[in-house]
Design brief:
302 residues; mainly alpha; 3-stranded antiparallel beta sheet; two-stranded parallel sheet; globular; binds zinc ion
């Protein structure tokens, strides 16, 4: 019953959102957290619904949804785009964030908090301070409900100014990445011990600012299509890299570590045999996110 309620709610929401042509995203649309507690059960829900002839309409919606997820990097009818004015702000903000990254260095950028980025921009003329409009734009993106453009996951970081505390993270040698101390480090070390060091940490802790940069840069490259961007990158605040999760790849495999090709590697095959490993974004999940076989789930929301 809970499942049906969730799917019902999901599709109702998406009928509104997706049935409009190339709709632009203009304002904050609230921050309802949808379906978070049911996420792990939704896959089972698909088969339940598919067996019931009275829910064919839902079945068609599910097929359409799965098509979008499997072709995550394409533009689809109903995707939500930024309007022109906001796209210009997206462009200038992304470029500024990139200059901040250059100034502080990649390693520090993983941990840089929002206030730190604003301060760095103000202090370095090479970066230039964020304009009021840019800050308002960033705020709008952060506090918008991801579900309004198709991202259905939970939001572990609720405030734009949430910080990564340096004392709680540790740098993992030779990777350029950090992990949270405790469970994430324990799980990572166990993986390396059991799989061998062909396995490598490809992305660990990401601050709100780092996630902002990744998400907005993706949105910038796809004409401000927030739906497309969020199919492969969680919007800022919504990423579990912010509190615990990390990505594992195979050494020397480069960007292919972040594609389906990763499933062909020795590392992935061995990962699958470790009973304690859980993938956060499974194939055909209903969170609005592509399959990410490299993304290790550490914690649920606490
Ligand atoms: Zn990840």
């Amino acid at each position: 019953m809970m499942l049906l309620t969730f799917l019902d709610h999901y599709y109702k929401k998406n009928i509104t959102v997706y049935d409009m042509k190339r709709r632009v995203f203009l304002k904050i649309l609230g921050s309802a957290v949808v379906g978070s507690a049911f996420a792990s059960d939704v896959l089972a829900g698909i088969s339940i619904i598919a067996r019931d002839p009275s829910t064919l309409k839902d079945d068609a919606h599910i097929k359409d949804y799965l098509h979008r997820m499997r072709n995550f990097d394409d533009h689809h009818p109903g995707d939500i785009y930024l309007d022109r004015k906001n796209f210009m702000l997206l462009e200038s903000s992304v470029k500024r964030l990139k200059r901040v990254q250059r100034i502080v260095g990649h390693g520090n950028f993983y941990l840089l908090n929002f206030d730190g980025a604003v301060k760095t921009a103000r202090n370095f003329s090479k970066v230039g301070k964020f304009s009021k409009e840019e800050l308002k734009f960033l705020e709008m993106i952060f506090y918008a409900d991801g579900a309004s453009y198709g991202f259905m996951g939970e939001k572990p970081l609720k405030n734009m100014t949430d910080r990564v505390q340096r004392s709680k993270v540790t740098k993992i040698p030779y990777t350029g990445n950090y992990l949270y101390k405790g469970r994430p480090v324990e799980i990572y070390n166990k993986i390396i011990k059991e799989i061998g060091n062909r396995a490598v940490l490809t992305s660990g802790v990401r601050s709100v600012i780092k996630q902002f940069y990744l998400f907005l840069n993706k949105a910038y490259k796809c004409e401000g299509n927030l739906s497309l961007a969020s199919r492969s990158l969680a919007p800022p605040g919504y990423s579990y890299h912010g509190i615990s999760d990390f990505d594992v790849g195979q050494k020397g495999f480069g960007v292919d570590n972040f594609s389906d090709k990763f499933t062909k590697t020795e590392t992935f095959k061995k990962l699958q045999n470790l009973g304690y490993i859980k993938i956060r974004y499974k194939r055909d999940n209903l969170l609005g996110v592509r399959y990410e076989p490299w993304h290790i789930k550490v914690n649920s929301l606490v």
